[in-house]
Amino acid sequence: MSVMPNSHEALIRNRDRLGGRVALLGVSAPALLAELPDGGMAMSEHAGQAAALATQEHWQSCFGYDDPGLIASAFDTVVVFLPKARSELDLRLSLARWLSAPGARVILVGEKKEGIAGAVKQLKAVAPGASKVDSARHCQVWEAANIEPLADFDLSSWQAWHSVSHAGCSIDVCGLPGIFSHGELDGGTALLLETLVTSPLKAEHILDFACGAGVIGAWYQAWQRAQGQSPSVVDGVDVQSQAVICARATYDRAGARGDIMASDGLENVDGLWSAIVTNPPFHSGVKTDTSMTENFLREVSRHLKSRGELRLVANSFLPYESVIKRFIGPVERLYEDRRFTVYRAIRR
Question: Left (φ > 0), alpha (ψ -120 to 50) or beta: where does 40 sit?
């Protein structure tokens, strides 16, 4: 059984406040739902967590902010767990108000180290009468009674566009609150793009793992067109709902080709690619966590054609080279500095 976060345990202490039809936004552990047998709706923007939530009886699982199961004015109590990115809290609170029936209460739960103190200001901006009802498990629990519902929740109004330029080639990139590197070109991604210029991939069909907002695939195809080449098809996969939504929008605007898929790692992905590129995440909350990338490297060989190429950029302090060598094949460093290393490996 997965260990429950402190915020989930703090909510269980306050389960008597969960009256009527209940919605939970930002759930990460299915064990919480088992403790609340009356059921309701649980949303996660993480594909793996949403799939796990769907296994719990009496609970409807929703994936992300555009899930068709999210219904206006349908809930009497809406619990908002504090997201990692503070900018995402305003989005989550707006969704909570749209889901709220007249007279509903909104409960905000978060850990002190996650920044609950600052988050309370955002709650009070939409619910001035909100008050703290509990402190436990290094968390605070705040409640806003009779929240003012929102008549509309239009996710596209939260989208923001910015331009990414590299090697004389520009694309427009879609962003949403909570997405990685929102509004800028991440330094590691920029170096990966540079190696695509200096050492282009010999592949017509590519997979971008942990594709984020679709920068690599959309930019690479635009750069290939600018060189007079026929662009590769670049599929993308990401675990986060906002990333999938933004990558599809980025591809649409750039005229890029490729399927964008939601998956926790490669477990639910079928297909073989001639090349796989990635700038994988290595944080879980505030902690360094390389497990997702290590799992990816274990799985990747069955998705990479024989003699296919893996190209990966990572912070130079992360111990990936030996893992790549073990699971893929011989490793070459295409670029290296104090911050980042770009690895190339050819599948045995």
Answer: left
Judged by DSSP in three states, 291 sits in helix
The amino acid at 93: L
Contact yes or no for 213/245 (Cβ under 8 A): no
Domains and CATH numbers, the chain: 6-155 (3.40.50.150), 159-346 (3.40.50.150)
What's the average model confidence in pLDDT over 315-330? 91
Is residue 181 left, alpha or beta, with left meaning phi > 0 and alpha meaning psi from -120 to 50? left
314 within 8 A of 324, measured Cβ to Cβ: no
249 pLDDT more than 70? yes
- Provide the strand spans (E) within the chain: 22-25, 40-44, 59-63, 75-81, 100-111, 131-136, 139-144, 160-166, 169-175, 205-209, 233-238, 260-262, 273-278, 283-284, 287-288, 304-315, 331-336, 340-346
Tens-digit pLDDT profile for residues 112-167: 999 999 999 999 999 999 999 999 999 999 999 999 999 999 999 999 999 999 99
CA-nearest of 174, 239, 186, 176 to 209 is 239
Whether pLDDT at 91 is above 50: yes
β-strand 283-284 against 287-288: which pairing, if any? antiparallel
- Quick: pLDDT tens for 293-312: 778 888 998 999 999 999 99
| Nearest to 66, CA basis, from 177, 156, 151, 178 | 156
Which residues neighbour 271 within 8 Å (Cβ) at sequence distance 6 or greater?
Answer: 207, 235, 303
Bridge partners of 205?
233
Tokens read off for 150: 């929102």
How many Cβ atoms sit within 10 Å of the Cβ of residue 197? 14
Q: What is the pTM of this model?
A: 0.93
